[in-house]
Amino acid sequence: MVLLDNSRTAIWSTNISKIASNSTVGVILDTGNLVLADASNTSIIHWQSFDHFGNTWLPGGKLGRNKLAGVSTGLVAWKARNDPAPGVFSLELDPNGTSQYLLEWNSTQQYWTSGNWTGRIFTGVPEMTPTGIYPNSLYTFDYVNGENGSYFVYDLKDDSVLTRFVLGEMGQIQFLTWMNGANDWMLFWSQPKAQCDVYSLCGPFSVCTENAMASCSCLRGFGEQSVGEWLQGDHTSGCRRNVELQCSSNGSVVGRSTDRFYTMGNVRLPSDAESVVATSTDQCEQACLRSCSCTAYSYNGSCSLWHGDLINLQDVSAIGSQGSNAVLIRLAASELSSQKQKHAKKLITIAIVATIVAALMVAALVVILRRRMRREDGTANILPLLAASRLVGGVGDGRREELVSAVVDGRLGGDADMGEAERACRVAFWCIQDDENARPAMATVVQVLEGLVEIGVPPIPRSLQLLADESNYLQFSDLLPSK
């Protein structure tokens, strides 16, 4: 079987040539397995897709390792949401011979393990135990360790249930089940649970922020290495310096370094630190300045230096983990001074834009409320806070599309993409958050509206809640589906 492009050039094939094409048939089984079988006896399979995983693992597929050939069948994430090229994240059985499965970055750096098989479950996945809230599991699990190979397989007791494992482009392994009522896939389990625990998710010289509208952002003094990849949601190339450090061509410091540092507080420190002897912050800083390869340092009673790329830096202030860790990032002196000027201008611009947007949004909600209260039948008195809550938070009763369509201009006659309308509603409420640090940058807004970046559920701004002081409005938490 061969896949051709529009110029009839082969871009993929099953790479089997020992069988006659007129004696072979292609069949997609109910399991989702695409097989090439003998035309006279379809139980004779020449090739099957279950032996060649992409980013998805369906029930009945055997994820493991062929000991004789030394080949593993694992999952490989897509490079980006709209780019099925192989990415840097993978899931495979431990090549060292244990029964644990590993999530890896670039096939070298492990960042999650399933733990070993006990005969019933993997030690790192206690959710597999059929007890507690799931006393009667819908699934069967089996790990086989044979002479020729080892593999794990899961299956369903009820064929009407649709499930799949997917290794997402953001490096998380996810278990999804199709919900007929919602007409969508529902996430039941994922690892790592924290998105920022994925190794090098944001690439070098960037920072990962958990639960933010955009998880990855470049450090001060750095820009995207590949703007196109970032727009597609692939941040793994990371960021590059705007201005190079004061170094000679051979990598040594020329005279007395004029490089400076800026402080980032409340962070989880990057990986691969070097410990050096220093009794003060000044000594630690000088130790870094003496090496052109040193890009950052941290001093908290002991001195840690980082050389080369900074990987896995995480801002933990947004998740309420107010730690004492601070890292000082090395920049060219000219970059740091210019950044201060840019930062002041940026703050002024943000303040002006945010004020205008917030005023327009509040005014729009008041107008919508008044128009609905003046309807002839007088029955459509949907409270603005309730409507806003449902629009940005979603409801599980099948009425979300109806609620979103209610804010679309009626002159369109219903000719509007409800998915785009819902994204616009969500991003609008992100833009008027009380905390200016939670508001997205315009570049992020564009990515969201284009559908390139997923957005989370924004909290209802306090400014809107104040409109409800004289009425019995529901709180946002009351509208969320019960767990």
TrEMBL record:
It is found in: Membrane. Its EC number is 2.7.11.1. It comes from Oryza sativa subsp. indica (Rice). It is an enzyme of class 2 (transferase). PROSITE patterns: BULB_LECTIN, PAN. It is a single-pass type I membrane protein. InterPro entries: Bulb-type_lectin_dom, Bulb-type_lectin_dom_sf, Pan_app, S_locus_glycoprot_dom. Its main location: membrane. CDD domains: PAN_AP_plant. GO terms for cellular component: membrane. Coiled coil: none annotated. This is non-specific serine/threonine protein kinase. GO terms for molecular function: protein serine/threonine kinase activity. Keywords: Disulfide bond, Membrane, Receptor, Signal, Transmembrane, Transmembrane helix. It holds the Pfam family PAN_2. It catalyses: L-seryl-[protein] + ATP = O-phospho-L-seryl-[protein] + ADP + H(+); L-threonyl-[protein] + ATP = O-phospho-L-threonyl-[protein] + ADP + H(+). Residues 247-332 form the Apple domain. The chain crosses the membrane at residues 347-369. GO terms for biological process: recognition of pollen; response to other organism.
